[in-house]
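Design a sequence for this backbone.
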């Protein structure tokens, strides 16, 4: 059965809600003022690494991506929904990087433009690979037309730098933790796609390092009150989106033989630790109420989704959800020493 999207049909498994991957744009003129001189040696090293293109041969367009075993209908939905959302997020990265590359070229910043173009190259490969896994499932998504239909969210440059840094690093940890789990439990690797995750995650790691370098090109962005607020807000919001999404797609992780809650915690723990190399502060995750609040938020979110058509109950649940969000946002943070070096 083929579920091909037409110009009017939404992509399968892509309901519109807060957790749906979005498309972004930013302040291009400001991006064009990035002072690379502050990070020149790191910039040259990153550009050379991107030009070297270590994964050139990795994303083999001919590699068969057909599933290795049959899945029950709900398992199939879980897998396909994972593919659709991952594909749309990768494509969203591609669009942002491509647009930045195009505009920076126009703004006479050829080096920066080149760097974004190379990142766009990687994201196009990632999206293309996931798209091929979807085709193997009989699903075709018209990505360019999808981008034309979905609203584009505008973010100030600071926000893009913080949030893309974190999404690249969280992406790295997600791919590598799934890879490690499946290497330890190969009987759960039901699709050849998973065999590609290890070098794949290195691309995301490199992109994250590039964004760390870009943050450092803006003095003051990772210091003082601004640094504290940006770190707190973006760590919290990226972790929250992750927790709610993993809870919503819990079936997919169970299908891989993973416990979604433990996976979510480990991804947050590792990303938080990594972010200590870029941000002035990170959360204290162990020994605080952070994970306990995560459990309560996820639980309230489930109840909210189940209470459609009950306005009074929804009002109460929304108030509870808001109160939990505030408490989680205010959880203790610890200073990181590397950033101020
Ligand atoms: Fe990617
Ligand atoms: Fe990436």
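Sequence:
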């Amino acid at each position: 059965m083929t579920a091909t999207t037409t110009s009017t049909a939404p992509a399968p498994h892509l309901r519109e809600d807060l957790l749906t991957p979005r498309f972004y744009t930013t302040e291009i003129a400001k991006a064009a003022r990035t002072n690379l001189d502050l990070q020149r040696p790191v910039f040259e090293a990153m550009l050379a690494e991107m030009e070297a293109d270590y994964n050139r041969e990795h994303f083999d367009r001919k590699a068969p991506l057909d599933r290795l075993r049959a899945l029950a209908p709900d398992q199939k939905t879980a897998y396909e929904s994972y593919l659709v959302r991952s594909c749309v997020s990768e494509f969203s990265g591609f669009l942002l990087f491509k647009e930045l590359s195009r505009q920076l070229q126009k703004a006479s910043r050829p080096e920066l433009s080149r760097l974004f173009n190379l990142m766009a190259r990687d994201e196009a490969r990632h999206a293309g690979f996931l798209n091929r896994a979807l085709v193997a499932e009989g699903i075709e998504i018209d990505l360019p037309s999808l981008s034309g239909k979905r609203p584009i969210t505008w973010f100030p440059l600071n926000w893009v730098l913080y949030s893309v840094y974190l999404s690249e690093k969280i992406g790295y940890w997600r791919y590598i933790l799934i890879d490690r789990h499946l290497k330890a439990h190969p009987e759960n690797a039901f699709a050849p796609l998973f065999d590609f995750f290890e070098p794949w995650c290195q691309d995301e790691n490199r992109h994250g390092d590039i964004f760390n370098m870009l943050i450092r090109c803006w003095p003051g962005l990772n210091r003082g009150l601004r640094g504290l607020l940006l770190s707190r807000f973006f760590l919290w919001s990226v972790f929250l989106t992750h927790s709610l999404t993993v809870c919503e797609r819990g079936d997919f992780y169970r299908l891989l033989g993973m416990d979604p809650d433990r996976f979510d915690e480990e991804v947050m723990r590792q990303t938080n630790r990594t972010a200590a190399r870029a941000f002035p502060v990170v959360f204290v995750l162990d020994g605080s109420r952070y994970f306990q609040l995560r459990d309560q938020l996820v639980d309230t979110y489930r109840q909210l989704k189940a209470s459609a058509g009950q306005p009074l109950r929804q009002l109460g649940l929304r108030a509870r959800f808001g109160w939990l969000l505030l408490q989680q946002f205010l959880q203790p943070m610890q200073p990181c020493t590397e950033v101020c070096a």
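The longest helix spans residues 73-106.
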